[in-house]
Amino acid sequence: MRHIWLCAIFCLYGLYANGQFFSLKDNRKSVDIPFKFLRNLVIIQLNINNKGPYNFVLDTGVGLMIITDSSLADSINIAGTRKIKLIGLGDDEEASEAIVTPALNVDIHGLISNGVSAAILKTDIFNLSGYTGVPVHGLIGYDFFNSLAVKINFNDSILTVYPPGKAKLFKKSQRVPITIEDNKPYLQAYITMPDGSRVLNKLIVDLGAGHPVSLESSAKKYGNLLNKIPANLGIALNGPIFGYIGRIKEVEIGKYKLKDVIASFPDENYEQRTNIPRDGNIGAGILKKFNLLFDYSNNALYLKPNNNFKAPFEHDMSGIEYYLTGNDLSHMIITRVAPDSPADEIGLLRGDEIVSINFKPIAKMTAGEIDNIFKTPGRSLLLEIFHDGKHERVVINLRRRI
To answer: Quick one: which of 64, 26, 54, 58 has its CA closest to 292?
Structure first.
């Protein structure tokens, strides 16, 4: 199943202004902010110019705040915008166009914004609403993390934010040094491949990437994996990022070692436009195994293993990629069927609608429930499919593909 890949595709050179930040209201020492964790994305609610609430993905890989739902431009009553072209992959003019807003009143629970502007995409190429199953209106990153010390507790789905440098640390957590370059956090991690080779990597800490780890220039640096599958790894400004997925022996961050990790390897012709040399990124597939504290002011990321730390890394076992659509996001449409996968073997096609799984209507399931079902090895599922104008029932036998 495709992981959303948002990091580093917004290279808004020359647009970032000083004085864009958040602070705590009434000189509070801390503020708790609830979040939803959907398909490995952290989603918070906020208001803009006294309108909302709107759902925004919290993403350390994003610099300027991004509004993906262009209809908000009218809803939030903005004026004085200017057009820009976002730098990403390729030269798709339509997908790359955006407008930059003047300073907005961004109201997050317990916080005050100052001078925070945004880029509004002309076309919502990411379809985060269809990906998560809830309306998503944009992404927020550097302004938030650079202004505050941000604690993320995945056990309780609570963010706790503090003034910079004044956070209450997790007990028995480990400090991992980070650098902030081009408005993004980087760390050093050792990657051990199946052949035992161990390489130090510079990786973006990317809360907006759903995969565990992505390694670029893999063929030259890491050699060939013994077992891998072709995959659609995510989406960029001009379309899908293709490559393959395999398992690596170990990822070592500080004193923590994660075994048998699923890794993404973009195609060699993948060109990420960036000023900062790097080897890839660590995504939420790994980050969610820890409770986190980002403290940009002290160049620190604190890690404490949580209840999910020992859970094995699993990939989709059906071969189905999908999005949710309709007014209530309750229709599940297949966007891709992986070759030689269980879904391919029973004849499922792009454009088919899955109406129910084991007699449970999709309308009564979340995207997370669906993903968890599709990650269960050896399970047989009865799918009700709407195909070519008629309903059919088929049995799919899940199996581990990687």
So the answer is: 58
User: Are the C-beta atoms of 179 and 186 separated by less than 8 Å?
Assistant: yes
Rounded Cα–Cα distance for residues 250 and 263 (Å) = 10
Pairwise CA distance, residues 13 & 119, whole Å = 12
pLDDT at 336: 95
pLDDT of residue 18: 56
As a residue count, the chain comes to 402
Question: Beta-carbon neighbour count of residue 282 at 10 Å?
Answer: 26
User: Are 26 and 147 found together in one domain?
Assistant: yes
| Residue bearing tokens 């890989």 | 61
User: What is the rounded distance in angstroms from the CA atom of residue 332 to the CA atom of residue 329?
Assistant: 8
- Looking at the structure, do residues 48 and 110 belong to the same domain, yes or no? yes
Q: Residue 67 maps to which CATH number?
A: 2.40.70.10
- Is there a single domain that holds both residue 72 and residue 204? no
Q: Which amino acid appears at position 220 of this protein?
A: K
Q: What is the pLDDT of residues 292-313, one digit of tens each?
A: 999 999 999 999 999 999 999 9
**Pair of tokens at residue 390:** 């008629």
Where do the H-state alpha helices sit in 267-366? 284-287, 342-345
**pLDDT value of residue 96:** 65
Tell me how crowded residue 49 is: count the other CB atoms within 10 A of its CB.
Answer: 15
Q: Which domain holds residue 378?
A: 320-397
Q: Can you count the helices (H) and strands (E) in the chain?
A: 8, 31
Would you give the DSSP letter of residue 132? H
Taking alpha carbons only, the member of 123, 126, 163 closest to residue 146 is 163
Give domain status of residue 9, yes or no: no
Same domain, yes or no: 153 and 232: no
**Helix intervals (H) in 69-158:** 72-75, 93-96, 128-132, 142-147
Beta-bridge partner residues of 140 = 58
**Are 21 and 116 a contacting pair, CB within 8 Å?**
yes
Q: Pick out the chain residues at pLDDT < 70.
A: 1-19, 80, 86-96, 217-224, 226, 236-239, 269-274
CATH of the domain at 373: 2.30.42.10
Query: Minimal CA–CA distance to 29: which of 167, 146, 153?
Result: 167
pLDDT score for 19: 64
Inside any domain, residue 387: yes
CB 103 within 8 A of CB 26: no
Token code pair at residue 26:
């009434």
Are residues 265 and 155 part of one domain? Answer: no
In the chain, how many domains are there?
3
